[in-house]
Amino acid sequence: MIVRGLAHLGWTLRVVVADIGHAARLFWQLLCCAPSCLRRFGLVRDQMHFLGNYSLALISVSGLFVGFVLGLQGYYTLQRYGSASALGLLVALSLVRELGPVVSALLFAGRAGTSLTAEIGLMKAGEQLSAMEMMAIDPVRRILAPRFWAGVLVMPILSAVFSAVGILGGWVVGVLMIGVDSGSFWGQMQSGVDVWRDVGNGVVKSLVFGTTVSFVALRQGFEAQPTPEGVARATTRTVVLASLSVLALDFVLTALMFTI
Amino acid sequence: MSSSSTPLVVLRDLHFAYGDRPILQGVTLAVPRGKITALMGASGGGKTTVLRLIGGQYTAQSGSLVFDGQEVSQLSHEQLYAARRRMGMLFQFGALFTDISVFDNVAFPLREHTDLPEAMVRDIVLMKLEAVGLRGARDLLPSEISGGMARRVALARAIALDPELVMYDEPFAGLDPISLGTAARLIRQLNDALGLTSIVVSHDLDETFAIADQVIVLANGRIAAQGTPDEVRQSRDPLVHQFVNAEPDGPVQFHYPATGVAQDFGVQAPGGAK
Predict the structure, then answer these.
(1) Which of A180, A198, A182 shows the shortest CA–CA distance to A72?
(2) Which of A214, A242, B70, B105 has the fewest CB within 10 Å, making it most exposed?
(3) What are the beta bridge partners of residue B199?
(4) With 90 as the cut, is the pLDDT of residue B265 above it?
């Protein structure tokens, strides 16, 4: 009984370690493909267009509503302390530091991550990746790497759009509807938000999240069982794994960036 | 390049297993240059596995596999890719890239591997499509053509880089009688006109016997018969006899091993015995 339990534990550990090894190797391969992606930037650009453009509507609308809510909630809290004029600062800091990178990464995982996983998984199921290998074309370099780098590069842009639209949403609710002074809304924001400490760290965050989400999505597709159920399961795992990693990494990054 | 008398591909005592399931148990065969070699045998007999091993997509557990003087399992990543450039493979269902047109599918390896100007790519692609009779279908998407046509497009793509070796995985499966004859003739014509070496994996007896120079029958992970089509047809080996004459009973069992019928259905066998 004990021996069997130990054997099972050992086996599970072995599988986990092998899995981490495979993931690390794929990640390294993708990093090493950076020069070839630069040389054929057209492939990356097409994927950026595909991933970014189709996520844009979702990101903008979500950003707008998050901005509305921030405007409302922020006003009611700040007004208790008589500092409603700091609403602009609160909205901007919340978005640029946390909500912009995190929420847009979660939406990106659901919108673009799943489509990446399904695309790669179905290409594998249709033997397209195998056919490419037999044509002496490395599928990691030709198919996975451009998508990976496109995801990494497009995430900060989407996150910036999210934050910008969110700030506008906060302005609509705070200034236009509730009547906070427009000058102090923008003025406090301008003086209180630091380009490097706040905006810069937000960009770093979204780069990390873009890397995480694209890598998880591509790996799940690449390792998927080449069957309909296999692709379905891989797509689900992409959303779960990518979302959890983003939230966990956000905590780590916030702790590193804003406490020191 | 080695002399034309040595075989292009040589397998020696090759063993391969998926996990615990043995697929090939000591296969030795040679694929002569310029000829069509047919690999035949029942489904699941390891025919496709042989193609994947030659292409270096799988690695054998033991034994040797030599492609044009190079041991495939010993090649570095770059060398393996260089060797693959000299091979073309036709997948069972074509494996066309579904998001691009027929023309772009055939142009794909050319654009990836060469810096040819677009005008020349166009000429080569149209020539290859003409060879498989689909020059007119260049603008269609893979979803808009039939399975047989998809396989011909895949064939045009496989020969786009003028390979030395073309491997066909079940080129006849699921084709109607007209396409079947055309496909077989096409394989023969391409082989002779382009000076290729071909390996055809199939279990379609008549068409394959009609075009092959050499037939190898694989069964239970071993080679059951080898020779010209006529020699194989006249083989006295019970296994080959069963296969060539399409008999349901013989050394190859139709039924997967199972417990007794009576036990499984819960019925009593006549005579009262359980």
Answers:
(1) A180
(2) B70
(3) B37, B167
(4) no
Task: Report the C-alpha gap between B152 and B189 in whole angstroms.
Answer: 14
Residues of A in contact with B87 (CB under 8 A): 134
What is the least distance, in Å, from the CA of A129 to any CA of chain B? 9
Residue of B nearest to A124 (CA): B95
Tens-digit pLDDT profile for residues B200-216: 998 788 888 888 999 99
Whether B205 and B246 have beta carbons less than 8 Å apart is answered as: yes
Nearest to B182 by CA among B191, B172, B173: B172
* Chain B partners within 8 Å of A135 (Cβ): 84-85, 108-109, 112, 157, 161
Nearest residue to B93 via CA among B190, B174, B201: B174
Q: What are phi and psi of B21, to 5 degrees?
A: -90, 110
Say which residues have a Cβ less than 8 Å from residue A220's Cβ, sequence separation at least 6: A117, A121, A234, A235, A237, A238, A241
A-chain residues within 8 Å CB-CB of B85?
135-136
Cα B13 from Cα B11, distance rounded (Å)? 7
Provide, as residue numbers in chain B, all residues whose Cβ is less than 8 Å from the Cβ of A127.
Answer: 91-93, 95
Report d(CA A47, CA A143) in Å as an integer.
Answer: 10
Pairwise CB contact (< 8 Å): B95 & A128: yes
CB contact under 8 A, B98 and A128: yes
**How far apart are the CA of A9 and the nearest CA of chain B, in angstroms?**
21
Please provide the size of chain B in residues: 274
Give yes or no for B93 touching A (CB within 8 A). Answer: yes
ipTM tops the 0.90 cut? no
pTM value?
A: 0.86
Tens-digit pLDDT profile for residues B160-186? 888 899 999 888 877 778 878 888 888
Q: CB of B234 within 8 A of CB of B247? A: no
* CA distance linking residue B141 with residue B145, whole number of Å: 7
Give the residue from chain A lying closest to B81, CA to CA: A136
Q: End-to-end distance of chain B based on CA atoms, in angstroms?
A: 68
Tokens matching residue A210: 């873009």
Chain A positions contacting chain B at CB under 8 Å are 123, 126-128, 130-131, 133-138, 142
